[in-house]
Amino acid sequence: QKEVEQDPGPLSVPEGAIVSLNCTYSNSAFQYFMWYRQYSRKGPELLMYTYSSGNKEDGRFTAQVDKSSKYISLFIRDSQPSDSATYLCAMSDDTNAGKSTFGDGTTLTVKP
Amino acid sequence: DADVTQTPRNRITKTGKRIMLECSQTKGHDRMYWYRQDPGLGLRLIYYSFDVKDINKGEISDGYSVSRQAQAKFSLSLESAIPNQTALYFCATSDLGRPQETQYFGPGTRLLVL
């Protein structure tokens, strides 16, 4: 079983919809939780990160971490066609020796 | 100019050939990584290096080797290419000393092995 499991998708929504992207994990040592966005034919770019449990908001994006359930989510409000991309969750532990473990990604299409 | 560059961007090669993919970075980061990405399989780590003298195998290192020529350069070699190594390859860097490990990715190299 993988350490990080991500809802596989693909996901297709109309413009303006609220999108929920989700990952579960098994390693309780993970403390940092990241979301990367990857446009077609590009490398992934960091979108948001969260430390430990709680919520973090950045414009239309909200990252949510529930460590008790080992579950993280990324919410996109008022989704736009420009949000169409693959979203990858990633996690790392609380040491400098750690490195990130990535989910497989969820491909999102927002239709005008 | 891009902080993380990869050459070539596209490569077609034949089974059995040895090829090298190169990565350079201007971010001054100590850590560098090589991943491959396949549809439905996400990013899989091939090798990583935390400094010039440190090389570590990732989850799928068989058939690959790497060289860290300098802090800024990390090359991936396919010793004898085979068709199932057809994939998108990404180089990434991150900053040693930051607990929140943000990785910065290059634009990728699309490799086709015939």
Write a short abstract of this structure:
Chain A is mostly beta strands and 112 residues long. Chain A has strands at 4-6, 11-14, 19-25, 30-38, 45-51, 54-58, 61-66, 71-76, 85-93, 101-102, 106-111.
Mean pLDDT of chain B: 92
Q: Name the assembly state.
A: heterodimer
As a percent range, the share of strand residues of chain A is over 45%
- Helix/strand/pairing category of chain A: mainly beta
Measured by residues with Cβ under 8 Å of the partner chain's Cβ, the largest interface is:
A-B, 27 and 25 residues
List unreliable stretches of 5+ residues of chain B.
Answer: none
Distance between the termini of chain A: 37 Å
How far do the termini of chain B sit from each other? 33 Å
Note down, in words, how this protein is organized.
The complex is a heterodimer of chains A (112) and B (114). Chain A has no helices and 11 strands. Chain A has strands at residues 4-6, 11-14, 19-25, 30-38, 45-51, 54-58, 61-66, 71-76, 85-93, 101-102, 106-111. Chain A is globular. Chain A starts with a strand and ends with a strand. The mean pLDDT of chain A is 92. Chain B has 114 residues and is mainly β. In chain B, the strands form 2 sheets. In chain B, strands 2, 4, 5, 6, 9, 10 and 11 form a 7-stranded mixed β-sheet that branches. Chain B has a 4-stranded antiparallel β-sheet with strand order 1-3-8-7, with no helix packed on it. The model of chain B has no long low-confidence stretch (mean pLDDT 92).
